[in-house]
């Protein structure tokens, strides 16, 4: 087995693949996949692959008004990928997104999540994790 790990931006068909993952993970909650219009351009939508098999994906949303800030969001993993290195691949996805941010001059990255495992992963990677509940306040216009 080659074990080639690749961190890359979205290519044709990746959004549709990620939608299937979201449906699998979120389907029991009745949540729909994230609409394409809520995501950044393909060059800031990232995939981590092992031997050309997509393992996980995340997205960087940039603030043009405050260029030192980025939002890493909607991280989702391939529910069919069951290899022992799954956690390491997700960690690599997050750390590669951090490198992208650093290279762009971004000094602050934040994320929102409910997954306890994902919070543990971020904590392991040196992120500050506020364990008090917070609330998303949203208005559709």
What structural keywords apply?
141 residues, five-stranded mixed beta sheet, 3 helices, alpha+beta, Aminopeptidase
Secondary-structure arrangement, i.e. CATH architecture:
3-Layer(aba) Sandwich
Main β sheet profile: 5 strands, mixed
Oligomer: single chain
Mean pLDDT: 92
Helix proportion: 25-40%
| Topology, number of strands | 5
How many distinct domains?
1
CATH class: Alpha Beta
Low-confidence regions: none
The class by helix and strand makeup works out as alpha+beta
CATH H-level superfamily: Gcn5-related N-acetyltransferase (GNAT)
Whole-angstrom Rg:
15 Å
Series of secondary-structure elements, N-terminal to C-terminal = EHEEEHEH
Span from first to last CA?
A: 50 Å
CATH topology: Aminopeptidase
Coarse morphology: globular
Widest sheet, order of strands: 1-2-3-4-5
> What is the overall number of helices?
3
* Beta-strand residue percentage: 15-25%
């Amino acid at each position: 087995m080659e074990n080639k790990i690749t961190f890359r931006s979205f290519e044709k068909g990746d959004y549709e693949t990620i939608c299937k993952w979201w449906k699998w993970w979120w389907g029991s909650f009745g949540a729909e996949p994230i609409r394409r219009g809520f995501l950044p351009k393909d060059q800031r939508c990232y995939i981590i692959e092992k031997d050309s098999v997509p393992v996980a994906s995340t997205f960087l949303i940039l603030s043009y008004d405050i260029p030192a800030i980025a939002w890493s969001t909607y991280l989702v993993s391939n529910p069919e990928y069951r290899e022992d290195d799954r956690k390491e691949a997700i960690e690599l996805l997050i750390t590669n997104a951090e490198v992208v941010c650093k290279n762009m001059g971004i000094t602050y990255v934040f994320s929102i999540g409910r997954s306890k495992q994902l919070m543990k992963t971020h904590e392991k990677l040196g992120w500050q994790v506020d364990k008090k509940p917070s609330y998303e306040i949203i208005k559709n216009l």
